[in-house]
Amino acid sequence: MCLRTQNVLGYRTLTVVYSGMGTIERAGQVVIDWLHELPPVLGAAFVCGCFLVVTLIGSAYLQPTFGRLLQGEREPNTLVGLLLSTFSLYYGVLLALLSVAVFANYDKAQDTVGLEATSLIALYREFSGYPEPVRTSLAETLRRYVDEETGSGWSEQHRNRASGPGGLLVDELNRQLVSFRPNRETGEDVLHRETLQTFGEFVERRRARIQAAGTSIPPVIWNVVLIGAVLNVFVLWLFDLKRMSHFIMGGVLTIFIGLVVYMVAVLDQPFRGAHGLPPDELVEARQQMNPR
After folding, report:
1. CA atoms of 131 and 139, how far apart (whole Å)
2. What is the reported pTM?
3. ∠ CA 77-81-85 to the nearest 5 degrees?
4. Which one, 10, 76, 101, 170, has least CB within 10 Å?
5. How many other CB atoms are found less than 10 A from the CB of residue 91?
């Protein structure tokens, strides 16, 4: 009975731990979402300021304690310098790879917008080969879709959500194309077959654009980045230097780390906030679909 009670309590304890971890992750996501809404200069200053304040406070109150840990060594600064060089190398590689991955996702998201715009222009040109009144109906539905996606639909894209009215307009296009019965004698069947293929490519590219809005760095990588920043500062505190020297070295290092972290955070989700990708390619495609 006691053994069973202990197991049950252990299970409950683990549940509380996981719940707390989930709360921390949600709080971190709220902070990142808030950063996306700030102007670039203000957001970068906020992140760097947070790193800098913590570092300066620690340098003033914690560094004297940590600095005495290696007092027994003959040349403690040499050992700490070697440790800092090795650690900074691995940490710098981590930040570099993370930055490259974020830029790759950003470029990929930008490409999805361009590919969707290409499909829209191709569909509009193929619709011109349909007989009336189907041609006008298809072209008008396509214009309404682009107007929706570049207007209120893009606001949903900024929130990592798909546009509901945009999806309904895609369904309407699909119904219009499926219900059309081409005349084989005039070659409409060949045009209709190519249009259906182009429409399938458009749907796939639209889905890729919507999914690109949700790409983000896993929380475990963010944890490694933040822990690495703390360890960097801790190694700096092991140096036997004057307090002002610690302020300068720690400040410069943490400001740079803060800038990199801010850059990765705002580019992590390509469509979010003030830094989000604009629908320029879709707007250009709409300009080729006159009239307004």
Report:
1. 12
2. 0.75
3. 175
4. 10
5. 18
